Amino acid sequence: MEQLMIPEGYKSQLNLHDTQIGIKTVKDFFQQSLAQRLNLLRVSAPLFVTPDSGLNDNLNGVERPVSFGIKEQGDAPAEIVHSLAKWKRYALKKYGFSHGEGLYTDMSAIRRDEDTDNIHSIYVDQWDWEKIITKEERNEETLKEVVRTVYKSLKKTEKYMAIQYDYIEEILPKEIFFITSQELEDMYPDCVPKEREYNIAKLKGAVFIMQIGGILASGEKHDGRAPDYDDWSLNGDIIVYYPVLDIALELSSMGIRVDEDALQKQLEIAGCPDRAEMPFQKAIMNQELPYTIGGGIGQSRICMFYLRKAHIGEVQASLWPESVMQKARDNDIDLL
């Protein structure tokens, strides 16, 4: 996608003031629905962690975290989180949560190496959530059940927004479609992963692509995943078709987290078995942390989707190249 794509005939239906009201309306309604359906309690979470804790999300392993030294601690290094995928599991134990209970939090991150466009920003805001399951519940049936629950909240929010705003029509299908990344490759063997996502999202409206992180039959990955939080055989992305931009729009990445066996296997595949000696990873290997399922849901992404905006900068305050800002001004698009 170009840095700024202008849909033909696009004009925001809300001015800056009313957009702020719309953002709050979406966030308030969705998080209340999600917390109720998944039995989640809102908690406070860190903005930064120490590099040696093993708690930061390594994403695809190449993104550089924003780091700084802490003056009063002898300039000890700290890193802005990429996400809270690992911290949440630790917090569930520390805060005394029980089976079937979970937490969610507002996560803010800076991803300095992000290639920005209509849906990507160097600023990331999402709801990070996590809940405790049993080892026996670490299966595809549990994953699909939770995905359907999250999707019900997405559907319910769209219905609510369509009632609040006349210009919003319901476009999400009744049910979400499930497919593995290998099945998707088999379906579209001549396409790259993003093209496959677009094709299946446009065909089905809403899809959960499962089993992301491992190598496919082609010898390539569908997408990268850190080896030490999601179980690559029990994870996936919720992707919807977004007609405003004619794209596949990822709203959530989620999955059942690694147990001791999956962690060891995936660390070896990723070529970083030494990471098993870091505090967080060692706690998993020693079975000191609960088995969990969790994910992240993009706050700006869903606000953009429900308010039918053309650029993520219309619903979040970030930094953009001057060329993008000028093109937005020329087309009467207000970036916050």
TrEMBL record:
It catalyses: L-aspartate + NH4(+) + ATP = L-asparagine + AMP + diphosphate + H(+). Keywords: Amino-acid biosynthesis, Asparagine biosynthesis, ATP-binding, Cytoplasm, Ligase, Nucleotide-binding. Transmembrane segments: none annotated. One of its GO terms (molecular function) is catalytic activity, acting on a protein. InterPro entries: aa-tRNA-synth_II, aa-tRNA-synth_II/BPL/LPL, AsnA. SUPFAM superfamilies: Class II aaRS and biotin synthetases. GO terms for cellular component: cytosol. Its EC number is 6.3.1.1. Residues 26-321 form the Aminoacyl-transfer RNA synthetases class-II family profile domain. One of its GO terms (biological process) is L-asparagine biosynthetic process. It comes from the Bacteria. Pathway: Amino-acid biosynthesis; L-asparagine biosynthesis; L-asparagine from L-aspartate (ammonia route): step 1/1. It is found in: Cytoplasm. Its main location: cytoplasm. PANTHER family: ASPARTATE--AMMONIA LIGASE (PTHR30073:SF5). Belongs to the class-II aminoacyl-tRNA synthetase family. AsnA subfamily. NCBIfam families: asnA (TIGR00669). This is Aspartate--ammonia ligase. It comes from Robinsoniella peoriensis. The lineage of its organism: Bacteria, Bacillati, Bacillota, Clostridia, Lachnospirales.
